[in-house]
Amino acid sequence: MRKLTELTNEGDARQMVDALLVAGIDSEVRTREPWEVWVLDDDDLARARQVAGQFTPGAAGSEVVRAAAAIREQRARRQSRAGRRMVQVADQWRGGPAQGIGPVTLFLVIGSVLVALYSDFGDPLTMTIQNLSIEPWDSPEYWGGCETARCGGWSRRC
Fold first, then answer.
1. I need a labelling partner for 37 at 20 to 30 A (CA). Which of 4, 52, 82, 104 fits?
2. φ/ψ (deg, to 5) at 143
3. Membrane-crossing residues (predicted)?
4. What is the CA radius of gyration of the chain?
């Protein structure tokens, strides 16, 4: 983005922006006194200087203003159509903007709470833990085949 020129009148600056737009150059007015016209693309600066050299303040006809308005309207319609074609993938993955707890998650949470309550929060001596285990906790196979290991004597072998 480069500054093209400064003008003392806002209307003249807006007419220059319109003339640049009709020439295919995107630009904008910076609202400070003096009014500055900035070219948005640096590659268009040389062509913008040519258009600015031919521009006379106050002499831009209503044709230029109408043509610039038509270009802006066409761009707005194109932008609107592009916005409708845009898909927010994150919303589709989540199932929409509003989220809630899914049925599987709810089932797992309730099941986990019930198992925790019925097992006295993981006490290995309760029947719930014994029933949920593949191998009973009090069997010698679980403790490595050694009864002394169960009493804390891991250093001794049977």
1. 82
2. -90, 15
3. 100-118
4. 38
